[in-house]
Design brief:
single chain, 179 residues, mainly alpha, TIM Barrel, two-stranded parallel ribbon, 2% strand
Length: 179
Amino acid sequence: MLAFIYTLDHPDMVGVNPEVAHERMAGLDFSHAVAQALDADKLFHIDLNGQQVGRYDQDLRFGSDDPKGAFFLVKLLEDSKWPGMRHFDSHAYRTEDDAGVWDFAAGSMRTYLILKEKVAQFNADPEIQQLLAETGGSVERPTFSELRATRFDLAALRQRGYAYERLDQLTMELLLGVR
């Protein structure tokens, strides 16, 4: 959708409203869609919920089915300082009474806030930050021309390790509360 916005008469008036469930139904990584929208300055609204891959539109409580994916989404939104509202487009199980519906709403908000705290821990964790620095994890944004002019040493890139398994383990330990 992002590409079509720029074909409109007034592209400055149009943005996107991505939803966790819609990306996850297709097996896509929601953080990637949000990152693209943020980069294009076209994230106008966001719908947070939960969804199992390949299932109908479930609209589960935020983070309930994919805590690590929810963590990286919260990390993206918080690290980018996106000023928009966090909207929970989801619903309680149909078997819930009124109290259960309120528990559900509070649970979505609580999960977001817990993950926001975990993001702060991740960003302050010296071992994680050291690993990111060593593996070239950077937030530098080269221009298209700079990127196009870069000559990559493919042999060297193939030979080096990227420590993704170590980073993933540290992330899991943080999320599971043992870091």
